[in-house]
Amino acid sequence: MKSCAIVILNYNGEEMLRQFLPSVLEYSQSDIWVIDNASTDQSIEVLKKDFPSIQLITLQENFGFAGGYNHGLEFLKNQYKYYILLNSDVGVTLDWDLNLVSHASENPGYAAFQPKIISFQNPDQFDYAGAGGGFIDSLGYPYCRGRIWEHVEKDSGQYDDNTDIDWATGACCIIKSELYHKFKGFDSHFFAHMEEIDLCWRMRNEGWKIGYLGSVKVYHVGGATLSRTSPKKLFLNIRNSLSMIYKNESHFAFLLKFISKFCLEMMAAASFVMRGDSQNAKAVFKGYREFLFSKSYSEDQISKLGRKHTSYTKGPVSFLIYHTGILRKKYFSEL
């Protein structure tokens, strides 16, 4: 079995491939694979012509981020000890993969690690996705060291440490391949968004740790597939967050969180309506409707893992909305 495969999921990302694959090839020592999610642009031609050394897995339809990785990684099962999942819009640095693999090997109790994620457009700032390590508040809202809601911190070395976190970003993380397949990977019902948080939560429920390695740094464009202000992204986040909490908490804990989130998010929907933003208001309602009336979660994963209370890494922060909306705190250090 080989040590590690860098696996990039691509969908109509020919420009991202042209821009970022050269740095991945130059600075990496691991095998590089691209899973193509049935792209309709010139991605396949670009890969075959300009990057012939990169190994390619082609899927017959777009399964989304979650399903795309699940289907693609089945082809690599039992071939590698680790997978590094890497977005196509990430620039890497010298020996980044070797350092992640070395650290993961030295810490066998950890299922996954993420590096420090810096904004490609603003290299003095953290990136939105993952930043200095991901956490979850007591209502299941995710946040990061270096990024809370839309407020992003400048990187001044404050998160150059190694620490335990609640979740590792799918933009760039290393994960034990055996565990990825044991836990049946990402929940394909999610399609995109929250799937890495859910997977990390499920692994932590079984006693595995998730870690952050601040000495490794990568640069992420972010929003290349779906804008952060997109109603579709809001819909996916609402639906998938409810599914994630339902799967990972006890029935009673889920009910309390559901009631609290419903009140808060209906207030948000009303605010969208008052601002004339009907699309985002509809996205909130659609998220609840699809969670309640469609199969947007995996019963198989629920029955296998059972209902367990989560032990949060940092406390947890009781209500992120209260800390940020009422107390006006913007930095992780203030929480």
From TrEMBL:
SUPFAM superfamilies per UniProt: Nucleotide-diphospho-sugar transferases (SSF53448)
Glycosyltransferase 2-like domain residues: 6-178
Pfam families, per the entry: Glycos_transf_2 (PF00535)
Gene3D superfamilies with a match to the protein in the record: Spore Coat Polysaccharide Biosynthesis Protein SpsA, Chain A
Record InterPro entries: Glyco_trans_2-like (IPR001173), Nucleotide-diphossugar_trans (IPR029044)
This protein's UniProt keywords: Glycosyltransferase, Transferase
Domain of life: Bacteria
Glycosyltransferase as UniProt keyword: yes
GO MF annotation: an example: glycosyltransferase activity
Similarity-based family: Belongs to the glycosyltransferase 2 family.
Annotated protein name in UniProt: Glycosyl transferase, group 2 family
